[in-house]
Each structure stands twice: as C-alpha cells, then as structure tokens.
Amino acid sequence: MGKKMTVILEALMLLFFMGGGEAVEIYKDPSQLIHRRIKDLMGKMSLAEKIGQMTQLDRTAATPEIMKEFSIGSLLSGGGSVPRLQASPQEWIEMVNGFQNGSLSSRLGIPMIYGIDAVHGHNNVYKATIFPHNVGLGATRDPNLVERIGAATALEVRATGINYAFAPCIAVCRDPRWGRCYESYSEDPRIVIAMTTLITGLQGHNPINSMPFVGGKNKVAACAKHFVGDGGTKGGVNENNTVIDWHGLRNIHMPAYYHSIIKGVSTVMVSYSSWNGNKMHANRRLITGSLKNYLKFKGFVISDWQGIDRITSPPHANYTYSVHAGIHAGIDMIMVPFNHTEFIDTLTKLVESKVIPMRRINDAVRRILRVKFLLGLFENPLADDTFVDHLGSQAHRDLAREAVRKSMVLLKNGETADPPLLPLPKKAGRILVAGTHADNLGYQCGGWTITWQGLAGNNLTQGTTILSAISSAVDPSTDLVYKENPDLEFVKTGNFSFAVVVVGEHPYAETDGDNSNLTIPEPGPATITNVCGGVKCVVVVVSGRPLLIQPYLRSIHALVAAWLPGSEGQGVTDVLFGDYGFTGKLPRTWFKTVDQLPMNFDDPHYDPLFPIGFGLTTSPAAGR
Predict the structure, then answer these.
(1) With contact defined as beta carbons under 8 Å apart, do 231 and 179 qualify?
(2) Of 30, 203, 426, 616, which is most buried, counting CB atoms within 10 Å of its CB?
(3) What tens digit of pLDDT does each residue of 294-326 get?
(4) Which phi-psi region, left, alpha or beta, contains residue 276 (left: φ > 0; alpha: ψ -120 to 50)?
(5) pTM
(6) Is 94 a catalytic residue?
(7) Which of 444, 448, 450, 492 is nearest to 464 (CA)?
C-alpha cells in the first residue's frame, strides 16, 4: 500500500473513531464551512422536518414535546406573551431553554431560534431599559447613538436567553394618521437609511457585505421590516393599500432594505399591506424577484403574525390558497402562530401534490439553517445567565437618557420680542406641573411596552416619570406643585413662576392607533388653555407623531416635541432646565391641519406649520 493511501485511510479512520467510535457528522462540526454543514444536514432531513423548520409558533402554543415531534424551527413571544407577569431574566432563560431542550431531543437535534419584538429596547420584559421609539431616534439624527442602542438592546435580549429581535422597523411613514408612524424613523428615506445602524448594533459589524452576519454570543439576529411600502398606505390606514408606481416604491420605500442587506441583516419580515392592490404576502415579484434575486438577500424571509391568513378577505377564508400564495411568493418562515398542524398538513399536501416544488422548500430551509449556523446555535443552543446583569443596567439607562435629550425638538421658545423661556431656572419660587402625561410612565413609553398596546400608570415597569425628573432637577428650595388638570383660577392665584404642561396621546399599537383627526386627547387642550392662559408655560407634547397644535400655539410660550421618550424621563428635564442644549430636529413634517395630509417634505405644494428638519437650539445654562 502506498504511503499516500495509508495517510488517507488513517485520516478516515481518525474521523470515524473521534467521539467514542462514532463518525463526526459534518453539520455538527464547527470547523466545517457553513455551506457544507447546511448541505449535510439538509441531506438528512425528511420533508416533515423541513416543513417543521419553516414553522414559527407563539410560546403559548408550544411545548417541548411539540418542538421535538414536529421539529419546529422557531418560537416567538408576541406582544405581552411572557412566562409570567414581571418575570425575571432567569425565568425567561428557564422557559427558552425548556423549549430548546425539546428541539435538541428531536431526531437531528436542530435548535430553534426564539424571536421577540424588541422594538425600543427589550420592551416586553419587566425592568428592561425602554428607549425612545423610532420617531424620537429619527429626531436625533445620530446613527452612532442608534447603533449603541442596538448593542445595548442585544445584550438585554440575550439576558433573557433570546437570540432574535424583530427590529428595526424601517418603514418610511408618509402619513402621520398611520397607527405605526412612531415605529418609523422619518418620512425621509435618507434619515431611515442612516438609522439602519441599529442592525450593526444588534448583530455586529459585518466583514462581508450583503451576507447575513451575527457577531457573537452578545449579539442577536435582526429583522428589517415590513417589506415593503407599509408606511405609504392610503389614508394612513394600517395594513391598507400603498398606491405608488415602481419608481416611487423603489426610491422611497425600498432603499433602506438595500442598506440593511449590505449591513448583513439576518431576516426580513413581510408587510400586511398591499402594493397597488396586490397583497405583499403573496407578491412573488417583490419578495423573490426584488429582495432575493435583485438585492441578493441571503437570510430568511418571515411572515408577519398570521400574515398569510390575511392574504384573503376575510382572513383564513381559503387557507390552502394562502399557504400556497405565501410560500410561492418566497416567504421562508411562517409566523403561524397557533395551529401548527394545520399549516404543516396543508404545506405537506401542497408539496406532495407537486403544487409547490421541492426546490422552494429547500430554498427556505437553506436560508433558515444559514441564520442558525451564523448564530452559533448548533454550538451554543442553551442560554445561561452571563448577560443577566445587563437587563436595565445603569449604563443602558444612561444611554436611554442621552437618547431622550437628543430627541427633544424645541418648536417654540418665546415670541420674537420676548426673551426665550427655555432653559428654565432650577431655582424658582413656585413651579406648576400639569397635564395627564407628567406623571404617567406608561403614557411616556407608549405602545409595545410590556404589552402589545401599552399600558397606563406607573406600575408597568421601572423608570422615571417626567414629574419625578422635574422634582429631582429643581433646587430643593423651589416649591413644586403638581395638579393634573387645574382650572384657570387655580393657575392665576397660585403665584407660580412658570408652568410645565405635559400632554399627549394615550398608548396604542398598529390599527388601534390609526387616527383621522390627530387632536390632542382631552383634557389636554383644556389644560393648555387654562395653564397657559394664567402663567408662562412650556408645553411638552408626548406623542408618536405630530398632533394638531396650531389652535393653541399663540398662548403657548415654549413648545417641545418629546415623542415617546421611554423609561428615562430625566432626558426631558436635561434640556428643559439647561444641563444640555436642545439639538433635536423634526424627523417629519408638522402639519397645520389634517386636511393637508398626507403632506411630505418632497411635495410640490409644501405648507407646514413646522417643516421637517426644524428645531430651535439652546445652549447649556452653566451654573443653573
């Protein structure tokens, strides 16, 4: 036997006998190239196992036994879907690992990936840091800040054993009547593009452009959403029809996806909306043709919650058609999220009857496995408590506070002939604080906080209200009075030096936030009228979008757009009282009347109350 042949046989024998006499399977060998691992694993998978990988369930519909029996590819926590109210990070980890052990005990031991809507911090989790919603981050014009927020969010998500965040939303909201407008960074696609740095924060910096990338155990898979045109629906109606030609879609709504793919985004979520009457969840031209083939996206495409069901009207009217249309369009993973057997049985029949070709299934599974291998799930499938101390850490709260103060947009600061009201003095005889939103943590966090629609009150999570922040900011000798909705007589007779009025929207998410009038909810207008009619006032508007403010503008001495600042109310007082100057710029047009809508910066007839990019500045008040 020749020397060369002997060496080859010895190498083969070594490979076979490694690990106690068992051959090392290629897909389990981290030293192998990912494409070889994928090919090896897919060669071993049955049709049932492949379709199982294409299935995502909500945690409430899953058990470890279901994960094992059906080789389920992914779980998620929908908004408010938690192990228990106020669950600790350890309880989250225990839950996720319980499901993961079910997956690992399946025939091939393919680990599942767990997703969650971490859209302004790890917002479903008690005591997590709640960052400003995207509209506020757009006002900062600070991509580096957004990247740091992404990195902090990744650590907090990992603190609960989760490895996949359904963020960022890169919608270009063109109509503030849309209930998801606060999830959009701006009406200007250039600003949205700049804020795709959240992806590099969540995932790490991609050394190979356009390939999915996750940079280590302290990072998570990201998800660019919702593909495509979700922010352009007619009338700002959620899940409605975006009527625009190809040129407009390509130049307004598509660019941020190109930049997300360059940054290595791992997944893309499809929009509920339609483009010129065609449901996006069934749009093969855009999902397969544009996203996968033209933009060369190599990660996996995921549906939205029951997204394929909504291809028909009413939803789920013809489920076989919906499954076929969604998979044929190019969706790789279906957020079912409850009835896995119906989806699995339906898709299995479609494949076995050759309505859906096997190559489409293989494309989907290849993409899903690619992301799982990139996440290191096969080597480190189970979470531990390594990152627990990062949840709601002081460093992250300091970062959120920085984001809040940079997001504040000063719209008015005194009349032309008068001295500016801001920054406010910390030492004053008597200060009045009023308004429904001054002492309400839930209101300042908005929707997608602890629950899907958000909550009212101060018991939902840990944070600092604007009132508490004012109390901490002012001099101890200052008499601070809080009255939510004072009458004019109270204000006039109160001998107040000035007043801070904090009003705005109540929490909402998605369709529940669609709003055709965009007025400030009562008693907000009455509070503005009473307080500003009796004393010099600064009005702070807490909202996910511009609201109708023109009728009250003359009586308001100083006006601040605070957006939905999140858990760290001190960021608001940092600029009100001059520890830092105002620097924020409007991320979207502030209208005069709703009759002008939709109105955007690039319209030929542009007549706003305040234009996009507007924002007065102040200097820090030294020594105050």
Answers:
(1) no
(2) 203
(3) 999 999 999 999 999 999 999 999 999 999 999
(4) left
(5) 0.96
(6) no
(7) 444
